[in-house]
Automatic annotation (TrEMBL):
Residue ranges occupied by any Cation-transporting P-type ATPase N-terminal domain in the UniProt entry: 80-154
Keywords recorded for this protein, A-Z: ATP-binding, Cell membrane, Coiled coil, Ion transport, Membrane, Nucleotide-binding, Translocase, Transmembrane, Transmembrane helix, Transport
Membrane-protein topology: Multi-pass membrane protein
GO BP terms, alphabetized: intracellular potassium ion homeostasis; intracellular sodium ion homeostasis; potassium ion import across plasma membrane; proton transmembrane transport; sodium ion export across plasma membrane
Keyword Transport: yes
Spans through the membrane: 137-156, 162-182, 328-349, 355-380, 867-887, 893-915, 1113-1132, 1144-1164
Official protein name in the record: Cation-transporting P-type ATPase N-terminal domain-containing protein
SMART domains noted in UniProt: Cation_ATPase_N
Species this protein is from: Paramecium tetraurelia
Source lineage: Eukaryota, Sar, Alveolata, Ciliophora, Intramacronucleata
């Protein structure tokens, strides 16, 4: 189940939900015209309603509006720290922007406000988590079974087997609970390692001195220095900004860098103003200084802690399925137990005997080993997924990804996936180059290798000019500093003093430096924006970027500062002036920026080293290539340069960047470089696998529709023309084009308009437009907000989908939490998203989701196989009890041997199903129906009525053969348990020629050898076939009847074929109840042999057994363990005593069960052949597929 704790993540989630509602409210303002249209439409609708209904609707709407207004006002007006004058802010916090707080005031505020950290609800104690694992519905069923065993022992203490059975069930139940507890605890430990909201130390100005302090000791009013690459330690108001840009992706999910400045740019919404930076976000560029305004729970992510309400998650699909199965088993077991309890009274058994029998039947129906099997299977699968970089936080979540549904309709399960970082590499990469009026594919030389045939020539003058211009205009560099996450982990290590931490930091830095040198350029971390990072990673393998930059010294301006201007959104360009000696120039102006802006600054262009004036041909070429790059969703950078004439700009010229005292609009165009965040290499194939598995992949992104559609095409999410493209190509309306294409790109504005349109409609009529969009198999949502992502998830669930949602930002957490399976990114994901998720992709790779889907489907299949395997032996355990009660034959199988099957010989082979290869159609089969359960009626019919009966034949045939070898004809065993007779004495010897057959008690009663009267009732009793009370008696002297005045033998005894002596009675097995103990062991082995063939038949649900092969070495290990257990039970004396087993001859070692075991295997293979042979060629499955496949 999903966590229900009031953690910091829950606080952030609740805040995000409210913030998203604010975003929707803001969006509504932008649709005034549409709102007016809706209002007119609503008036017409209300006019048609009765007055009473009209008033009621108006009252409800007014109430909702007031509630929404109150919430928005609370959020927007409560904080004013961002808009009040700086002097007032200093007075409020008793601080100074220059000297900061005094030590005394800071200490007082620390006592008043507490530590700068988010408070968390106290974690659930470990023992409560363990108790939770020990009290699941399945566990309760086993506890009840153990209790019944103890009750049976109390009623019949002469049979200790029930005591043993109860103890072992308790041990198994406890062990499985402990295994699950430790596996989930391990996942939680990995989760704790992710938490890195707060940096360990930060630069603070106090008493006018800059010093390092633990960030947890910050208080409101502290003046902090924000360094490049560091996390913001609290909510701060910006005092100084040196091109400081922050990455708010941990809070908003958007990876765009946002410029911070001291000016308040939004009076009403503190989240949108540029003069605030928020706790937990990252300073990616520049640096700055600010005043702390909120710390800990009073920060943006913690200020609504009091509004958080704990909410539990739904059970996983596997948990629901297991609960349904447990109910089935409980009903079946109790029903049969009650029926035979009543039947026993009718037959005439005593009440205590009846109760013991009923308990035995109930226990026989409970698969005691299945809980352990499920736990081990899930644990092994979770480990396999972890090896494949998928962390499962809850074992039962393993199966959920494989859940699909709706067998006959077109609706499918779906994955709502982010684009950036999940489908794509989250690394801007050079895609194309355009220089010399030609386009070149920008393949990376480090990735493709030196022998690859590249389209561009690194020695060509046009390429070298573009190379030099791009590197000199960019500032991004490779970052060899120890990653902050590692610094935080070391600084937060408990039990180390600061000196030890510094030593560990030094060692970690040295190790990091060694690894850094071995990294490829693509792997090395960088400092700088994404576009410049792409440039240096492309050009570094060609020539070292530091060497390129050092080859040209930056010119100085009139203030002796470097003559360069960074990029800003107003100018849309950046430039630098460098010392560049040529025949005509000392300085060179190099510019980069938006392609249209750079093209407009140029009056000529380079072509093969020559300068050509711009003409109509150049204009058309530029417009064409720029439009092409845009259609492909690529981000484009333009580059230009201009050698400043030496006569006008001599050495030492003082440049004025404000007045631009140099020619800026006469530059020479160098070329274009297009960038793209490309799909990960294995994503396109992974999407195809999802489609063949009946799982729809929906892209939900904040990018522009053109970019989103281009990436969706590369990822195989879209494979045809979209509705918009059909509409533009054919000049038709959106409604007409909608029915001519299966691919659709929806802008987020349409979702907002839909939300407005739905106002006032009944609940069942809302979202119909979204349902139409979701009917498209190829779907992209672009320019969506997190609130809209939540709407999309709800719409998919309304269609009956099992929805998986990926996300990385705090704002994604509501959608992740709402999804059936929430998936967070392990590398780029925020701590909150990871907390809300059920699974974490440790490598941020979408294809890992497909691995999870395949493993989920496989484990669902394998659990079916395991359950069918376990239930098969249940029938062969139950029918012996029924035969004993109804036909009064000797008990073929004791409850202790039932236990040996359920949690002994069955459990190891049952567990090895998890290692079986998936069926060949695992990712191409129809999605499973919503009505298809883990344990279906078809599975029960197969396990109980087909293989269960054949398995019973294996045991009974072996049992009858064994008893025949010891002198008992099968027909004589019927009702042998109710025959009353006069027992001989232990020392009596059977003599067929003696009138009394050697029975001295008969001789005492009938001295003359004639039975003139019936057996005296005081002398008559039944043979004890259950316990060893009569084990030393020769039954040929006991089963005597008085017939026609003569004493005669009741049975015609079979010859004693096996002359064995029991080690317990020191007498032969033949013609004694001791033969029953021997035969019970033989019955047990007959079931084991049947189960071996049953295992082979169940290794696949449809594939032929020969197709599966024998590559599952764990299967052989399971059989070897099973064989060793049977040997131990049979030939180790202490086990003979405890379990009532006997050492068998080879002929009784299940050999006689082989014919029926082989029939079981032949039937299973024939059944699968019929399923394959009768496969339907239409969408409607054949009878065999509908009624036989389980």
């Amino acid at each position: 189940m999903k966590s229900a704790s009031k953690s910091a993540s829950m606080i952030i989630t609740m805040f995000t939900q409210q913030n998203q509602e604010m975003q929707l409210a803001q969006a509504k303002k932008e649709f005034d015209e549409m709102a007016k249209e809706i209002a007119d439409r609503r008036k017409k609708l209300l006019f048609q309603l009765e007055k009473g209904k009209k008033k009621e609707v108006e009252k409800v709407d007014a109430s909702k509006a007031e509630k929404f207004k109150t919430m928005v006002v609370f959020q927007l007006t409560k904080q004013d720290e961002h808009r009040i004058p700086l002097e007032e802010l200093e007075q409020r916090f008793q601080t100074s922007a220059k000297t900061g707080l005094t030590r005394e005031v800071a200490d007082q505020k620390l006592v008043e406000h507490g530590k700068n950290q988010l408070s968390q609800k106290e974690k659930e104690p470990w023992y409560m988590k363990l108790i939770h694992e020990l009290t699941s519905m399945f566990a309760w069923l086993l506890w009840a079974g153990a209790a019944l065993c103890f009750l049976a022992y109390g009623l019949a203490p002469e049979d200790p087997s029930n005591l043993y059975l109860g103890i072992v069930i308790m041990v198994v139940n406890t062990l499985t609970g402990i295994i699950t507890f430790f596996q989930n605890a391990k996942s939680e430990a990995i989760m704790d390692a992710f938490k890195n909201f707060i940096p360990p130390e930060t630069l603070v100005i106090r008493d006018g001195q800059q010093q390092k302090f633990p960030a947890s000791n910050l208080v409101p009013g502290d003046v902090v220095v924000i360094e490049n690459g560091k996390r913001i330690p609290a909510d701060i108001r910006i005092l100084e900004s040196n091109e400081m840009k922050v990455d708010n992706s941990s809070l908003t999910g958007e990876s765009l860098l946002l410029l911070r400045s001291p000016e308040c740019t939004n009076q009403t919404n503190p989240l949108e103003t540029k003069n605030l930076a928020f706790f937990g976000t990252l300073c990616k560029e520049g640096n700055g200084k600010g005043i702390v305004i909120f710390t800990g729970d009073n920060t943006v992510i913690g200020q609504i802690a009091g509004l958080v309400e704990s909410s539990g998650g739904d059970d996983t699909t596997l948990r629901r399925e297991l609960n349904v199965f447990i109910k089935y088993i409980a009903v079946i077991a109790i029903s049969i137990g009650v029926i035979f309890f009543v039947l026993g009274f009718i037959i005439g058994y005593p009440a205590i005997t009846n109760l013991v029998f009923a308990i035995g039947i109930i226990v026989a129906n409970v698969p005691e080993g299945l809980l352990a099997t499920v736990t081990v299977a899930l644990t092994l699968t979770a480990k396999k997924l972890a090896y494949k970089k998928v962390l499962v936080k809850n074992l039962e979540g393993v199966e959920t990804l494989g859940s699909t549904q709706d067998l006959f309709s077109i609706s499918r399960s779906c994955i709502c996936s982010d684009k950036t970082g999940t489908l794509t590499q989250n690394k801007m990469t050079v895609e194309n180059l355009w220089f010399n009026n030609k386009k070149y594919k920008g393949l990376n030389r480090e990735k493709m290798g030196p022998k690859f045939n590249y389209e561009y020539d690194i020695n060509e003058v046009g390429f070298r000019t573009l190379h030099e211009t791009a590197i000199l205009c960019s500032e991004a560099t490779f970052d060899s500093a120890l990653p902050q996450e590692q610094q935080i982990r070391i600084q937060n290590t408990i039990g180390l003093n600061q000196q030890q931490k510094d030593q560990k930091l030094k060692e970690a830095q040295e190790k990091w430096n060694q690894n850094f040198q071995k990294m490829s350029c693509q792997e090395k971390p960088t400092i700088g924006d994404a576009s410049e990072t792409a440039l240096i990673k492309f050009f570094q393998p060609i020539n070292d970027i530091i060497q390129t930059r050092q080859s040209r010294q930056v010119a100085r301006d009139k203030e002796n500062k470097m003559a360069k201007m960074p990029f800003n959104s107003t100018n849309k360009y950046a430039f630098i002036i460098v010392e560049y000696e040529t025949a005509d120039s000392h300085y060179c102006l190099l510019t980069k920026g938006a392609p249209e802006r750079i093209w407009g600054l140029c009056d000529s262009a380079y072509s093969n080293g020559r300068v050509e004036l711009k003409d109509e041909k150049w204009e058309q070429s530029f417009l064409s290539i720029n439009e092409q790059f845009g259609r492909q969703g690529e981000r484009v950078l333009g580059f230009a340069k201009f050698h400043l004439p030496k006569d006008q700009f001599p050495i030492g010229y003082q440049f004025n960047l404000d007045k631009m005292n140099f020619p800026f609009n006469k530059q020479v165009f160098v070329g274009l470089i297009s960038l793209i965040d490309p799909p990960k290499d294995n994503v396109p194939y992974a999407v195809i696998k999802c489609k063949t598995a009946g799982i729809q992949v929906i892209m939900v992104t904040g990018d522009q529709p053109v970019t989103a559609a281009a990436i969706a095409r590369q990822c195989n999410i879209i494979t045809e023309k979209t509705v918009d493209e059909v509409m533009q190509e054919k000049g038709i309306s959106f409604e007409e084009a909608f029915h001519q294409s299966n691919a659709l790109v929806i802008h987020g504005d349409k979702l907002t308009k839909m939300a407005i349109d739905d106002e006032g409609l009944p609940e069942e009529d809302k979202g119909r437009q979204l349902q139409e969009w979701l009917s498209k198999p190829q779907l992209v949502f672009a320019r969506t907000s997190p609130a809209q992502k939540l709407i999309i998830v709800a719409g998919c669930q309304r269609r009956g989908h099992i929805v998986a949602v990926t996300g990385d930002g705090v704002n994604d957490s509501p959608a992740i939490k709402k999804a059936d399976i929430g998936i967070a990114m392990g590398i780029t994901g925020s701590d909150v998203a990871k907390d809300a998720a059920d699974m974490i992709l440790l490598n941020d790779d979408f294809s890992s989701i497909v691995v999870g889907i395949e493993e989920g489907r496989k484990i669902f299949d394998n659990l079916k196989k395991s359950i069918a395997y376990c239930l098969t032996s249940n029938i062969s355990e139950l029918l012996p009890f029924l035969g004993f009660v109804v036909f009064r034959i000797p008990l073929p199988l004791t409850t202790v041997l039932i236990l040996c099957i359920d949690i002994g010989t069955d459990i190891f082979p049952c567990t090895t199903y998890v290692f079986e290869d998936a069926d060949i159609d695992i990712m191409t089969r129809r999605p499973r129906s919503q009505d298809e359960h883990l344990v279906s009626g078809k599975l029960l019919v197969y396990a109980y009525l087909q293989n269960g009966v054949l398995s019973t034949y294996c045991g009974y045939f072996q049992w009858f053969v064994t008893l025949y070898d010891f002198g008992f004809y099968p027909s004589d065993l019927l009702f042998i348990g109710v025959r009353e007779t006069i027992l001989p004495k232990v020392g009596d010897v059977y003599d067929p020629n003696d009138p009394w057959f050697g029975n001295s008690n008969l001789k005492r009663i009938y001295e003359n050898g004639k039975c003139d009267f019936d057996f005296p009732s005081s002398e008559v009793e039944e043979i004890d076939w259950i316990y060893a009370n009569h084990a030393k008696l020769d039954l040929r002297m006991a089963y005597i009847e008085c017939k026609d005045g003569e004493l005669k033998e009741v049975f015609e005894w079979a010859p004693c074929s096996v002359n064995l002596v029991s080690p317990y009675t020191k007498k032969p097995y033949c013609y004694s109840t001791e033969a029953s103990n021997y035969a019970q062991t033989s019955f047990f082995y007959g079931i084991v042999v049947g189960q071996i063939c049953n295992y082979q038949g169940l290794r696949s649900l449809k594939n032929a057994g020969t197709f599966q092969g024998f590559s599952n070495y764990y299967m052989f290990f399971g059989f070897w363990v099973e064989f060793m257990l049977t040997v131990a039970l049979s030939y180790i004396e202490v086990f003979n005593t405890v379990f009532g087993t006997r050492d068998l001859l080879f002929i009784h070692y299940g050999v006689c069960a082989l014919p029926f075991a082989l029939i079981m295997l032949i039937w299973a293979e024939g059944r699968k052949w019929m399923i394959r042979a009768s496969k339907s060629n239409t969408n409607y499955p054949s009878w065999w597929e509908r009624c036989v496949v389980f």
